[in-house]
Every structure is written in C-alpha cells, then in structure tokens.
Amino acid sequence: MAWLRDVDRWFIDEVLPHRAVFRRHATRLVSPGEAEDLVQEAYARAIDASHHREIANARGFVLTIIRNLAFERHRRAAIVRIEHLADLGALEIADAAPDQFAVLSGTIELGRLMALLDMLPQQQRAVVKLRRIEGMPPKDIAVRLGLSISTVEKHLAKGLAMLASALQETPTPDEGVTVSTLWRRHQHQRN
After folding, report:
1. CA-wise closest residue to 9 among 42, 45, 58
2. Residue 97's pLDDT is what?
C-alpha cells in the first residue's frame, strides 16, 4: 500500500477503528436514515484536515465534527424531532451570546466612545461618523460635505487617531479634558 498518502494512513489507523462509535453517536443526534450521511460527511471533513498530524485524539476530533454537523443540520431544519434536541442539549454546547459582564462593559465602552466622538472637532466628527458608523465611501463623504477626497481621508485619519489615543487614557470625570487635549498630550509624549 505504498500509494497511500500520510493522511490516508492516519485515517485508516486512527479514525476507521471507531466507526461503530461514530454511527451510534450520529444516530443519537439525527434520524437513523441521516446518521450514515452525517458520519460520511464527518469523514470527508476529517480527511481534509490539513493538520491531521497534530490531532492527538482522532476519535474525539471526529465526534466533535459529527456533533457540529448535527447541530448545523438542526439549526437549518424547519422541523426537528424533540428527541434530537434533548440529545443536543446533553452535549453542553456553550451559549455563544455574551454574558452580562461583557454586555455591560461593552455598553459602557460604547458610551465612552460616543462621548469622545462628540468631543472631536466638527469636521472630523462628521467624517468619522459618516465613514465608520454609516459606512459611506470617502468619495460620497467628500461630495456631501463639500471637501476634497484627500481632506476627507486626512480628517478620518486624524479623527481616528485622536479617538484611539483618547480611549487609551482614563481621565477623571472632573478634569474636563477634551479629545484635543488628550491628543496634544499623546503627541507631546511621543516627542
């Protein structure tokens, strides 16, 4: 069998011995008629893995592929049997939604960014909002604000640099520091 590739040998030695386990697992997650298709699709993905030499546990790797494929099928399906949902729930799939801390800290950071954005000089604020928030191309911003494209790009670059610098600093609320002041401090520290 000299014609076998390295990945083929790995597949025969490490994956195929567990085929009964893979079929049982797939049958728990999808209907018996779909189980074999699910296993075959998992095999195809496993054999395409460019990092097969680095996989320490081929059985666990293929079981994870099967679980992810089943989850994807259920997510796309219009009708899902309740037994399969119960089995997917037992797999302890992590919720991808951010936790309360992440939501709260994101809200605080967004509020801080919006306050700093409002402190930018008027032209820079307008350009940054139109480009980064509304997604408008520089050419359209130039037409809308009556500026050259070069000027729009300069305002955007300077406004973003000022925001980045201001976000790195943490002034106390009673300082009354503006973004321009923070930018000058940053420029002074660099020199």
Report:
1. 58
2. 67
Cβ atoms of 121 and 154 within 8 Å: the answer is no
C-alpha distances in angstroms, 174 versus 114, 171, 178, 181, 184? 18, 8, 12, 14, 19
CA distance 157 to 163: 10
* pTM above threshold 0.70: no
**Cβ pair 15, 58 in contact under 8 A:** yes
CATH for 100-190 is: 1.10.10.10
pLDDT tens for residues 28-47?
Answer: 888 888 889 889 998 888 88
Written as one letter, the residue type at 76 is: R
Tokens of 185: 């401090």
> Where in the chain do CATH 1.10.10.10 domains reside?
100-190
Q: What's the rounded Cα separation, in Å, for the pair 177 and 112? A: 13
Q: State yes or no: pLDDT of 65 exceeds 70.
A: yes
Between CA 33 and CA 53 the distance in angstroms is: 32
